[in-house]
Design a protein that fits this description.
Order of helices and strands: HEHHHEHHEHEHEHEHEHHEHHHH
Strand content: 5-15%
Number of strands: 8
Structural class: alpha/beta
Bound molecules: zinc ion
CATH architecture: Alpha-Beta Barrel
CATH topology: TIM Barrel
Number of helices: 16
Distance between the termini: 5 Å
Shape: globular
Largest sheet: 8 strands, parallel
Helix content: 40-55%
Length: 335
């Protein structure tokens, strides 16, 4: 089986991607070839972060070199989308960090429009706003309210930030209001935090898209809750490995979740920090997670199933994948 050819031929969704965390390295290199001349230690394949704050501080330090205006978001997003298209990605859900609105003092809507307008032909892009657990500040609150009420191109919201922080008084009503305004609801949960955070995201925030959800492996009740509510887990194994959410590859629950009949998708999270591509994520599933090509097909289909796409578009994608499956059966990817 020529796995890499199969992975390339497979139409893929990318459903868990932080825009700032997807900054292509060449932007830094072009900006300051002296300082950013060679790839840094943290982009080495074998590198693993000591902690979430270690990861976050390195990412922020570099991102702030490049993201200064809405135009910068446009250029970076254009480059990211072009790269995804070259990997045969057809659908992308990406989030930008609401905290940047306050930090850069740029209207959030301008950031949203810049990213949205960067989407090329034949790539469907949905833009989410990532909101930290403690982001409802005096400065940001009115922007956030405006966003879910009036920003037409905002696909949805995603809860970000350290999982040990509890929900604040604004959180649940805010997610409810977003739902009323037809926004797609996501939350990061069960990455570093316990399975109870996943339960809380599902029952209290009403999300049906959990980002990571690794900790569901620790609780039968959480697994049942996920199944009963048709929750989909947007998983990123390389991120989990490099952030030491898992100690060894054999601990990663993706294969187990698929066997349990749970909807999982496959994404890259923060490719700037992990130096991973979506194709590498798929290959990694075969090489490190004991998965089969049929599992990869399932992951891609799941992503299109939960995608914010019309039925005709989904049918076309499924037909294309089914044709590929037939070609696999006929031996197209055999040695
Ligand atoms: Zn994430």
């Amino acid at each position: 089986m020529k796995n890499i050819e199969l992975i390339r031929a497979l139409p893929k969704p990318e459903t868990h991607l932080h825009l700032e965390g997807a900054l292509p390295w060449h932007f830094l290199n072009q900006k300051d070839p002296h300082r950013f001349g060679k790839e840094p230690f943290f982009r080495n394949n074998s590198f693993r972060y000591d902690s979430f704050s270690h990861f976050e501080s390195i990412l922020i330090e570099h991102a702030l070199e490049i993201f200064k205006s809405a135009e910068d978001y446009y250029h970076v997003a254009s480059s990211i989308f072009k790269n995804l298209k070259s990997q045969n990605v057809r659908y992308v859900e990406t989030s930008f960090h609401a905290g940047m609105i306050e930090f850069l003092r740029i209207p959030g809507k301008e950031i949203l429009e810049a990213i949205s307008s960067a989407s090329p032909d034949e790539l469907e892009v949905r833009v989410f706003m990532g909101i930290s657990r403690n982001a409802y500040t005096e400065y940001l609150s009115s922007e956030l309210d405006q966003a879910i009420e009036n920003w037409e191109n905002l696909a949805g919201i995603d809860l970000h930030g350290p999982e040990e922080l509890p929900f604040e008084s604004w959180t649940i009503p805010f997610w409810e209001k977003a739902k009323k305004n037809d926004r797609i609801l996501k939350a990061h949960a069960g990455e570093f935090g316990p399975s109870s955070n996943i339960d809380q995201a599902i029952t209290e925030l009403g999300v049906r898209r959990v980002q990571h959800g690794v900790a569901a492996r620790d609780s039968e009740a959480t697994l049942n809750l996920i199944k009963e509510n048709n929750v989909c887990l947007d998983m990123c194994p390389i991120s989990n490995y490099k952030l030491k959410v898992i100690n060894t590859w054999s601990e990663h629950p993706l294969k187990f979740f698929i066997e349990e009949g749970i909807c999982c998708t496959l994404s890259t999270d923060d490719p700037f920090s992990f130096n991973n591509t979506l194709e590498e994520e798929y290959l990694n599933c075969l090489e490190k997670l004991n998965m089969e090509p049929t599992d990869l097909i399932k992951l891609a289909k799941n992503g299109f199933e939960v995608a914010d796409l019309n039925l005709d578009k989904k049918k076309d994608l499924f037909a294309e994948i089914n044709k590929l499956v037939q070609e696999i059966d006929e031996g197209r990817f055999s040695e």
